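Quick one, C-alpha cells below. Sequence please?
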C-alpha cells in the first residue's frame, strides 16, 4: 500500500497517517504469533511486529516517522487506524503501538508499570497522586521523562478506549510557536539546574537535576518541564516556574483536538509539549491510555 501523509486540519506542523482497515487486516496474522506476555518478556519479538507494520507500507513507514519526528518544522504525527471492527481489540492496539515505537527507537523501561509501556485509566473517581489521572483537572502542558535519568527523545500516547467522555481534548504546543520562547529560554534562571522528584506512583527512588531549557545541536532551545515535579531551591526558581506555567497555559498557539479512539500521537519530546483539557463530569467516565516513550536508534 502507498503511504499517504496529510497535514492535520488544525496545523501543518502535525502530520496525519490514516491506516485503512484493509491494511490492518494484513497485520492480523503476523500479530497473532505474539502474545502480550511474549512481547513483554522477549524484547526481540517487538522488532518483528515493527517489520510487519513497515511491510504494509512497502517499507516506507519507519523512515517517514523518523523524518517527521526529527524535523523541527513538524515533529508530531498522528496515526489513525480504522478500527471500527471488533476484530481489532485492545491487544491489537498494544501490538500496533509497539510496532510504531520499534520503527524509530528503543522504548525506555517504564517504572510506573514495570514494562516497556504503561496502560492506565482516567475515571470519574480517582485517588492517585498524579494529575495524569485527575479527570476534571486541566493537565497542563509538559514534556515527559523530566524525573528520570534516561533520555526521552519521543513519546507515544494511544487512546485505547473511552466511554462517557465529553471534553478531555488533546492539547499540544510546538516550542517555536510559543510567544514567550525567547524571553524565558534566554532567562538565566531557566538554564540553572532544578531538582526534579516524582510521586510514589512513579516508582522512582531518586531525584535528578537538570535545567528547564537547554539547546539542541543546532543551537535552538529545547525544554524539559512538567509542573508537578520540580522542587525549586529558592524564590527565583519558584517565581520563574510560575511565570513559565502561566505563559504556557495562556498561549494562543496551542493546538486542541479530539483524538479518535485507537489513534496514536507520536511526538518529539524536546520541542513539543502536550496536555489535556478537563473532562465534563460524568459518573460513567472512563478512558484508557497507553504510553510508550524512548530514544531514537543511533
Amino acid at each position: 500500500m502507498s503511504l499517504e501523509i496529510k497535514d492535520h486540519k488544525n496545523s501543518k506542523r502535525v502530520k496525519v497517517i490514516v491506516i485503512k482497515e484493509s491494511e490492518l487486516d494484513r497485520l492480523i496474522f503476523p500479530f497473532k504469533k505474539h502474545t502480550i506476555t511474549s512481547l513483554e518478556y522477549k524484547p526481540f519479538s517487538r522488532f518483528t511486529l515493527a517489520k510487519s507494520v513497515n511491510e504494509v507500507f512497502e517499507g516506507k513507514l519507519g523512515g517517514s516517522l523518523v523524518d517527521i519526528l526529527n524535523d523541527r518544522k513538524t515533529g508530531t504525527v498522528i496515526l489513525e487506524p480504522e478500527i471500527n471492527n471488533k476484530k481489532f481489540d485492545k491487544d491489537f492496539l498494544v501490538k500496533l503501538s509497539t510496532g510504531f515505537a520499534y520503527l524509530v527507537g528503543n522504548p525506555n523501561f517504564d517504572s510506573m508499570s514495570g514494562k516497556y509501556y504503561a496502560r492506565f485509566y482516567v475515571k470519574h473517581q480517582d485517588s492517585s497522586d498524579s494529575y495524569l489521572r485527575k479527570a476534571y483537572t486541566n493537565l497542563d502542558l509538559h514534556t515527559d521523562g523530566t524525573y528520570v535519568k534516561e533520555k526521552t527523545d519521543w513519546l507515544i500516547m494511544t487512546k485505547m478506549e473511552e466511554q462517557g467522555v465529553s471534553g478531555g481534548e488533546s492539547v499540544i504546543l510546538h516550542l517555536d510557536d510559543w510567544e514567550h520562547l525567547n524571553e524565558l529560554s534566554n532567562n538565566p534562571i531557566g538554564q540553572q539546574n532544578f531538582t526534579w522528584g516524582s510521586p510514589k506512583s512513579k516508582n522512582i527512588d531518586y531525584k535528578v537535576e537538570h535545567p528547564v531549557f537547554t539547546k539542541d545541536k543546532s543551537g535552538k532551545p529545547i525544554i524539559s518541564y512538567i509542573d508537578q515535579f520540580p522542587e525549586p531551591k529558592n524564590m527565583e526558581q519558584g517565581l520563574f516556574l510560575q511565570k513559565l506555567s502561566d505563559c504556557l497555559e495562556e498561549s494562543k498557539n496551542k493546538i486542541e483536538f479530539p483524538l479518535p479512539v485507537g489513534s496514536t500521537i507520536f511526538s518529539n519530546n524536546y520541542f513539543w509539549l502536550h496536555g489535556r483539557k478537563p473532562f465534563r463530569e460524568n459518573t460513567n467516565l472512563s478512558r484508557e491510555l497507553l504510553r510508550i516513550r524512548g530514544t531514537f536508534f543511533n
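Residues 235-249 form the longest helix (15 residues). The domain at 6-176+250-296 is CATH 3.60.130.10 (Double-stranded beta-helix).
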